[in-house]
Each structure stands twice: as C-alpha cells, then as structure tokens.
Specification:
The chain is α+β, with helices and mostly antiparallel strands and 230 residues long. It has one domain (26-229). Helices cover 19% and strands 29% of the residues. It contains five helices and twelve strands. It has helices spanning 6-24, 99-106, 153-157, 192-195, 205-212, and strands at 28-38, 41-52, 64-68, 70-75, 78-82, 86-88, 90-92, 122-124, 133-136, 145-147, 162-171, 228-229. The strands form three sheets. Strands 8-11-1-2-3-12 form a six-stranded antiparallel beta sheet, covered by helices on one side.
C-alpha cells in the first residue's frame, strides 16, 4: 500500500465534510410556541424549526425551513395546529423562513437575517405573522379540517377556549449534524405524521385537509409541506 496518499486523501475528506457542514448547517433555529386558554387553564405546545439559507455554489436554490407544524392536543378530541404556512390570497410557504426575524423586528429588537442566530428570549408572533391555524373536528378525518382565525378560537373549539398567544424564540444551532439533544443542541422537531392518523392514506389526505379548510394551495404547493418540511 502506498501510504503517501493517506495524508492528502484524509485532508480532502475533511475539506469535503467541512464544506457540506457549511452548506447545510442552519442559519438559525427557533422555537415556535402556541398557547391556548382552556376551561382547565393554559395549554401549550411548541416545536423547533431550522432555517437553512442557500449557500450552494450554483445559487440556484432558496432559503428553506425544516421541521413540523405545531400540533396542540387540547383533550376531548379538540386540537389546534399552527401550520407551516401563511395566506396571501393563496397558501404561502416562504413566510416561515422569516417568521422569527420579523417577530424580533416587530418587537423592537432590530436584527438582520445574518445576525438573528445571536438573539435570545421569546418575542410575540402577532397579526400577519401568525401562521395559518386549523383544527380537525374529527382528528381521524382530514375532510373535517377548519381554518381558525386567531380571534375566533372560541367559535371553533367551544366556550372558554381562546388563543393565549404565539411566540418565537431563537435557540442555539448546536453542533449540526450532531444536534440530537443535550449539549449538542436541540434537534428539529419531528413526528407530526404519527399524530395524524390519516397521514399515510393514498388519496392525498393533506390536499383534502387544505381544501376542507378553504385554503387554496396553488399548483406549485405540495400540501404535505404545510405540515412538515424535510
């Protein structure tokens, strides 16, 4: 064996791995939290989302968000989901890329996209920044999806239910791609598919859910992307 090539090959491997980390490491992560007042008190759910800028050499990609929609199980079959989408005439996906940035700026904590990973502490998500909220009258049936305006939670869920608030909080990136918890950093939240009994049906259940909720996705939208981004 010719050992003189081991050093250069090892160096090349390190450079390739380092470059892939540079390209794929999130620009920032944030925790999205949904809180609802109920007759039994405030209940909440949250999820970690990662925002990955386009750092590829071709510059033909785009900034994207990775993670799952936040599903809050309120008990008794009641639920509220903050989708990974906003509505601007049609369903719009890219707003999630800038949700935390815009929330911090709206709260008076001015920051640029490149510097937002340095921010700490939660800020409210209000007005047009609030993602689309939906509920499933029957969690096992996507055709029972209903859009829930933030000020009409009681009408959708029943007396005593109100939106207490939605917040965003930047969290450390961690040691991607080893960010699987603890000192390595909080991982992107996954698992919503297991919480939606209809997810693996072959008849486009995510599309049926959007249609039932009156959300027009447009031809370019994959309905599953409002629930999860890989």
């Amino acid at each position: 064996m010719n050992f003189r090539w081991l050093g250069p090959l090892a160096l090349l491997a390190v450079l390739v791995i380092a470059d892939q980390i540079r390209i794929n490491r999130p620009g920032h992560k944030y925790r999205l939290t949904v809180e609802v007042e109920t007759p039994e008190g405030v209940k909440s759910a949250s999820g970690i989302l990662a925002v990955q800028p386009d750092r590829g050499y071709s510059r033909s990609g785009h900034t994207r968000t990775l993670g799952d929609a936040v599903l809050l199980d309120l008990g008794g079959g009641k639920n509220l989901i903050a989708l990974l989408a906003h509505v601007d005439k049609t369903v719009e996906l890219d707003g999630m890329n800038y949700l935390a940035l815009r929330a911090y700026n709206a709260a008076g904590r001015k920051v640029s996209f490149n510097d937002i990973s340095r921010m700490t502490g939660p800020v409210p998500v209000q007005g047009a920044l609030i993602p689309v909220l939906v509920t499933f009258v029957d969690p096992g049936n996507p055709a029972t999806a209903r859009a829930v305006p933030p000020d009409e939670v009681e009408a959708a869920l029943g007396k005593g239910f109100h939106l207490h608030g939605i917040s965003a909080e930047v969290v450390p990136n961690g040691l991607w791609p080893l960010d699987f918890g603890g000192p390595f950093g909080e991982p992107v939240t996954r698992g919503i598919e297991a919480k939606l009994p209809w997810w693996n049906r072959p008849d486009d259940p995510a599309g049926k859910a959007l249609q039932a909720a009156g959300l027009q996705g447009g031809e370019a939208i994959d309905p599953k992307q409002v629930f999860t981004r890989k």
